[in-house]
Amino acid sequence: MSLRKLKYILLFILFSGILLAQKQTVIKGVIVDSKTGEPLPFVTVMFDGTTFGVNTDFEGQYVLQVDSNAKYSTLKVSYVGYKTTTKDIQLGVSQIVNFKLQLEPKTLNEVTVKGKKQKYRNKNNPAVELIKKVIDHKAENKPSSYDYYEFEKYEKIQIALSNISEKFKNRKALKKFQFVFDNVDSTKLEGKPVLPVYLKETISDVYNRKKPNAHKEVVKGTKMVSFDGYINSDGVTNYINRMYQDINIYDNNISVLSNQFLSPISNNAPLFYKFYIVDTTVVDSHKLIQLGFVPRNHNDFLFQGSIYITLDDSAYAVKKVDMSVNKSINLNFVKEMHIEQEFEKDTTKKYALIRDVIMADFGLTAGGKMGLFGEKTVSYKNIKIDQVRSDSTYKGNEVEVKDNADHRDEAFWETNRHEQLSKSETGVYKNMDSIQKMPLFKRSANLAMLLLAGYRSFGPIEIGPVNTFYSFNPVEGLRLRFGGRTTPKFSKRINFETYAAYGFKDEKWKGYIGTTYSFTKRSIYDFPVKSLKASYQKDTKIPGQELQFIQEDNVLLSFKRGVNDKWLYNDYVNLAYLNEFRNHFSFTIGYKYWIQQPAGGLHYNYIDYGNPATDIKSLTTSELSLHLRWAPKEQFYQGKLYRIPIFNQYPIFTLHFTEGVKGMFGSQYNYQNITLNLYKRFYLSQLGYTDIVLEGGYINGQVPFPLLDIHRANQTYSYQLQSYNLMNFLEFVSDRYASIMIDHYFNGFFFNKIPLLKKLKWREVITCKVLYGGVSRENNPAYNTNLYRFPEVNGVLTTYIFDKDPYIEGSVGIANLLKFFRIDLVKRFTYLDHPNAPSWGIRGRFKFDF
Questions:
Q1: How do residues 236-279 score in pLDDT, each as one tens digit?
Q2: Residue 231 in contact with residue 198, Cβ under 8 Å?
Q3: CA dihedral sign of residues 792, 793, 799, 804
Q4: Nearest to 481 by CA among 464, 458, 497
Q5: Residue 589 contacts residue 626 (beta carbons within 8 Å)
Q6: I want to staple 697 with a disulfide (CB 3.0 to 4.6 A). Which of 426, 452, 620, 675 is the partner?
Q7: Does domain 454-846 match CATH 3.40.50.2000?
Q8: What residue spans of 93-179 are helical by DSSP H?
Q9: pTM given for the model
Q10: Tens digit of pLDDT for each residue in 13-58?
């Protein structure tokens, strides 16, 4: 799953171009109080006579980096309460320039600025008293306080390559891409030229209503760089939006880069932040006080920076925010991250957000030299307060895209953009289009897709996935497989997929053929989908194995623990109609004709006391099904093989109902099976987040054990999130059950406070899984000789029903090993007397996150 999340990032690095690196002047240093030696945060460091500079972090450290051709010779340091100091610098070299500032107390609006000798305290601290006033007035200052609130929103998302070496630029393979160097932008990152490779613009009208609560966004125009055929553009946008979510400084927690940070004006901010009065100033005739804030523990998920509070009224509103994250935080790849927000008075004299900027610089190579720069800019205009709208304004989907939104001409954008594009931003559309037409790019991109996605494209068809071409198991022995599918270049509305496989031990051919027809004018992959799928499959399967985002015959899953010889030969005929709605509700109506034959060590037979058991060759069923799913505000990344959900704070509900019809095409049983699943992620601020899955199922009707609920087991060494990792295949069955799975990620909350561990950036994980069920008397073969008996090995049962105890397993794990891996030590607590039941196990999982 995570490899597919990475593929678009790697493509940008490998094939989109390069920026021109220059010899640079790098200045580093630390600024301290001359008497106490304590570091001074938020000191302004700039080149004398310019506005180009930085602020020190909460440890008093700073870094300035500029091209050597910049004619700067003097560094000036200024800090309220201290004497301004200057020092000369050398151009074109790296150097360390430290400062010891001398105290020069002065008064600012009756607030005395003191040295840092005294121990920091909240009590009698004017900065803390001020931030408490801001917290007390949050409810009346946030936009949600209005009954009606609407505006025009312009959003610009940019990804650029940054900090690539001259050596990399001069590689022979990249000589044909030299024209992109004309598009370098040296204004985005101080001293670091960047080269845009992706850009998306959106302009829309947004309507909000308080009672009854409603939100509607009407997209009027979209324009973006498209890597059609290689990367799903909507999927890229969704993933970037997940990284750069809209920020509301008035919320207690702020989501950035898939993590939650505590807001500096959260209700509990004084417990986690230190606040300092830095300065008073006047901006646009508004009298403001600048508050500096730093984390009490710089390893926690907190911000550092400045917040400007209004003083010319009693609103205690936020006028401006300028904040970043510290490099000590347990974030992968992030070298720098910066957030800016600006507010101005609206028609009701309250302060409304008018501009929002999030920037991040990611290091992707050893040493972090080469990387990606990402920026999301949002501006708001035509803000209207309490303008009553009819109910029809809010009807329909939450996000409505006008039919011609992605076909707007340049005149539309010139007129409606809130800000003009820079030269480099304008050039990215043309450059990326030119690059994609080059044969070298196409060959390289096809190779990358083969390695990362598992498919090799040949225009209208693609071959793969390559990781299933070879595998092995106890029933088939060596298994070879070859297959492929059509692409949207063959047809957007019709897709064909097929494969053939052969087992050298059982000497049997297997295969699959299927087709999907889209009832929309879009591809069968484009949300919302409305499609009909028909398929036939003849293949093997392990009863009770259900994998997430992984092919069952993936070669890496050929390695399994314990005895693994209870298999099935399955013949499937499937028909399914899927209808998705833009509110993320969907339903699927299906029919499945299924012939299952036991294989390997699995046998179907009746209990016939006093007589030898007679094996039953096959079991035939016909099923009608209805699948309902609702995932409000769901986002996902659509890859080549799967649609991968991007989890957020909203729940996901799934209801599945199956009706077995006896006599339909030889079906042998009548039954009804209903399953309800609820997934929810809970964010716990500094303590990380918890994923909880609740599930229950019930079967009505008398059926043999292969048609009972065979609980999801896992005998591979890969940790499966919604399977029982120390349960054996086909170990437990039931006709009614309930379960809970809890996965909690601490995000390094404890490790970050241990000096020897915090540098490793490990993250703690704990899990608990509990399953309890039962089998009614009518479905228990011990009471019914007409039912298949449970599997045995040498007269010992290997398939069980639950007695008085539930099945329980738990684990403790370390995530973020080498930034990509999670290792769990799993413990099984119950039913340890079952044959081959492990009490401990180590499982691993590949996981990419920030």
A1: 666 666 666 778 899 888 888 778 889 999 999 999 999 988 88
A2: no
A3: positive
A4: 464
A5: yes
A6: 675
A7: no
A8: 126-136, 138-141, 166-169
A9: 0.76
A10: 444 333 333 457 888 999 988 887 878 777 888 888 776 777 787 6
